[in-house]
Design brief:
With 454 residues, this protein is α/β, with parallel strands linked by helices. It is built from twelve helices and 21 strands. Helices cover 30% and strands 24% of the residues. The protein has three domains: 201 residues, 3-Layer(bba) Sandwich (FAD/NAD(P)-binding domain), CATH 3.50.50; 110 residues, FAD/NAD(P)-binding domain (3-Layer(bba) Sandwich); 99 residues, 2-Layer Sandwich (Enolase-like, domain 1).
Length: 454
């Protein structure tokens, strides 16, 4: 009888877990993956994909109202149906669930749809089965934090927002991260009255400050009420909706309170500590660059490690782990110069160093920036601004960071991320001929740096 049933058992069939399982199986490993919910994890079911579909939907209202007439289109009074959007979104998610199942089946990976718990360094209990594995991979992601205030149970998180029965007319969003900002744009674009409350002085901490400030201006222009440096202290059900009370004595009567105050690793009840796996103070699994935990046979990737919590990063970590375990090539994950985007309205995207981080790190830098109204709005009368920014090391002239506020920010920065990763210099960008007329050409035509701050 074989000592192990599988070479690898993966707990969690999200993007990272599925990729690690498929690649490992392709390298000859016997693999099973356990998933207690739906295949695809947060990204497919309650994150990136449904969120982007709702973002697409939320753009039409502004396009009909502001853009169409300027280009000669007469559009009848548009009507939006939330139920139709959610049904169509659900159908696409079901299709993707089936795609993930097919990918695992084609790779020869066994799918076990039940909750998994680690019993010892080589044993996983899934339902009634006790499975012996040479290696165990924990890739079960994270979950939203919920409010610990009186009436907090009346609030929802992003998990529930994707399944609301009706579009709320008045929405209070609590939080200052990308999820809060994105849902503010979604609900406002679909017709809700939106207030966003954040305890800090400006949302999206860690992103370039110029982008954050410009985005705040654009959101206010779209009618979103931004309330910074305040906290919700209680929520209560009253006639006509929910009343949220603020620390400064103010209050808001709304139909829905959505909390987006962060996420935490989904490690409770997995048996990790009993198996000897070290967790940090936030409950995240501590790993090295190769995804190894404090137990040699147990590994972890993705949001459960709370490093760079992005779907493509989890996929990258999964591929690296597979090569390390079964490909004969020890491959550390690379978390430098990871591009990211916030699908706000307009969107922001970034790669590399922000101006603030570079200066705080003692670097001498040159900063190039340009803000302008895009060509599209010359006929619509729209006032939306686009912002382009480069952070350049003064001595080497290497481009350290690219930051964009634009409806096409993510598409633009994805390409420029290659240049940053390849250590391109400002001279390389200057030598690149732009595509005209585009917003992105601004990044290869800026010539004069800003004066240094006092």
């Amino acid at each position: 009888m074989a000592e192990f049933d599988y070479d690898l058992v993966t707990i969690g069939a999200g993007s990272g877990g599925v990729r690690a399982s498929r690649v490992s199986a392709g390298l000859g490993a016997r693999v099973a993956v356990a998933e207690e919910a739906r295949l695809g994890g947060t990204c497919v079911n309650l994150g990136c994909i449904p969120k982007k579909l709702l973002v697409y939907a939320s753009h039409f209202r502004e396009d009909f109202a502001d853009a169409a007439a300027g280009y000669g289109w007469t559009v009848p009074e548009p009507r939006f149906d939330w139920g139709t959007l959610i049904r169509n979104k659900d159908r696409e998610i079901e299709r993707l669930n089936a795609v993930y199942d097919g990918l695992l089946e084609a790779a020869g990976v066994e799918r076990i749809l039940d909750r998994a718990q680690i019993e010892d360094p080589h044993t996983v209990r899934v339902g009634d089965r006790h499975i012996r594995a040479r290696h165990i991979l924990v890739a079960c992601g994270g979950e939203p934090l919920r409010p610990d205030i009186p009436g907090g149970e009346l609030a929802i998180t992003s998990d529930e927002a994707f399944g609301l029965e009706a579009l709320p007319g008045r929405v209070l969003i609590v939080g200052g991260g990308y999820i809060a900002v994105e849902f503010a744009g979604i609900f406002a674009g679909l017709g809700s009255r939106v207030k966003l409350s954040y305890r800090g002085p400006l949302f999206l901490r860690g992103f370039d400050r110029d982008l954050r400030s410009a985005l705040a201006d654009e959101m206010r222009r779209r009618g979103i009420d931004l309330c910074f440096e305040t906290e919700v202290t209680a929520i209560e059900a009253v006639a006509g909706g929910l009343r949220a009370r603020f620390a400064d004595g103010g209050e808001a009567l709304v139909d829905c309170v959505l909390y987006a105050i962060g996420r935490r690793p989904k490690t409770d009840g997995l048996g990790l500590e009993a198996a000897g796996v070290r967790l940090n103070a936030k409950g995240a699994i501590e790993v090295d660059a190769f995804g190894a935990t404090s137990v040699p046979s147990i590994h972890a990737i993705g949001d459960v490690t709370d490093r760079v919590n992005l779907t493509p990063v989890a996929i990258h970590e999964g591929m690296c782990l597979s090569r390390t375990l079964f490909g004969g090539e020890a491959t550390p994950a690379d978390h430098t110069d990871v591009p990211s985007a916030v699908f706000s309205q307009p969107a922001i995207a970034t790669v590399g160093w922000t101006e603030e981080a570079a200066r705080e790190g003692g670097r001498a830098i040159d900063v190039y920036a340009s803000s302008f109204r895009s060509l599209r709005h010359t006929l619509t009368g729209g006032e939306e601004k686009t912002l382009m920014k480069l952070v350049v090391d003064r001595d080497s002239q290497r481009v350290l960071g690219v930051h964009v506020l634009s409806p096409d920010a993510a598409e633009i920065v994805q390409g420029f991320a290659v240049a940053v990763k390849a250590s391109a210099t400002k001279a390389d960008l200057d030598a690149t001929i732009g595509i005209h007329p585009t917003a992105a050409e601004e990044l290869v035509t800026m010539r004069e740096p800003r004066p240094d701050p006092a």
